[in-house]
User: Fold this.
Amino acid sequence: MKGVFSDLEQYGHEQVSYFHDKASGLKAIIGVHSTVLGPALGGCRMWKYADEQAAIRDVLRLSRGMTYKAAVAGLNLGGGKAVIMADSHTQKTPEMLKAFGRAVEAMGGRYITAEDVGMSVADIDLISTQTKYAVGGSNEGGSGDPSVMTAFGVFQGMKAALKHAGLGENLDGMRVVIQGAGNVGYHLASYLNAAGAKLMVADIYPAQMERLVSEFQAEIIAPDKVYSTECEVFAPCALGAILNSQTIPQLKCKVVAGSANNQLDSESDGYDLFSRGIVYAPDYAINSGGVINVAAELDGYNHANVVAKVTRVYNTIADILDRSKAQAVPPHKAADEIAELRLAQAKKSNPEVEKQLCQA
Ligand code: NAD
Assistant:
């Protein structure tokens, strides 16, 4: 039988904590992958997982991704993430959110929470009544909804990826398929529409797409047609693992550039995209706008500084793609190398880090 530590060893986690509150029905898992660069910051996802294993896998992969995201974005933060096993449409209650806030507080600052799928600014406000370790709220000094800056970063990174693919960075007339018309999908559609792109959108909740149709004249496509629809850019803005052995052969796009975390189901999927000549903008590098935005709260939020930093997602993606080309490795490997180099340098310049972890 698989022991509880095998998952932690597989991904290299420092800590995974389980929280249960009988009264509210809260079942939450907080994953702290690394605190080498600083406290582990990452959003909380509320999702109706098929089973506990699916939730554990998600929190492990998401929190590891946050370590790499912060490292590549140049932030002095570690990687963490939380999941709450519940349907955000039908099971979310104030009591459950408050219980989660108490769980975050119990982590003592090793983990700082924020929004992710199924969570809103109002939810963070409620969580913040129970903990000081929450960002992305509407309180004084709060940075609010991170999805606007996430979308802005994706828009910048998409331009760099298109240029790398030889299509130029002018989005006028480009066909972009957006998978997921949620917070990021909506704001990304807004930037793309202003740039003249032709939008196609799919969501499993039809009501989510109404705004994109009425405001940006987006064309609705069926959720299972997103992969096979011909377009210049496929923008995954829903859940992860959507680039896999079933979907990659169907792709008719030149570029994959979207906000979803953990888009590659496995390592080999990144190689498959590369060998098919599809330019992939690594997820944790292109979607770093949100964490850059919430992290700015910790130093006193300044919107102009955040916009300047997020604009540089263009350069980050361009650098990764140049490195990928020069070394003939897929972009996800090139991005990992950049992140791992920064983490190794941090450990080298501060050997105490390793000691502190052992004592934690
Ligand atoms: P959201 O919950 O607002 O939107 C997600 C949307 O995807 C929902 O409308 C949902 O119905 C839809 N969806 C789910 N499964 C789908 C499927 N199979 N096909 C089509 N649509 C589907 O979440 P969000 O905040 O917009 O985040 C989207 C993605 O971007 C997530 O993977 C998230 O982790 C990632 N991300 C978000 C931020 C942020 O600032 N919100 C930052 C970084 C990364």
About this structure: Residues 256 and 280 are 5 Å apart (CA to CA). The longest helix spans residues 52-73. Residues 115-118, 146-147, 150, 179-185, 202-205, 208, 223, 237-239, 259-261, 287, 290 surround nicotinamide-adenine-dinucleotide (CB under 6 Å). The domain at 147-341 is CATH 3.40.50.720 (Rossmann fold).
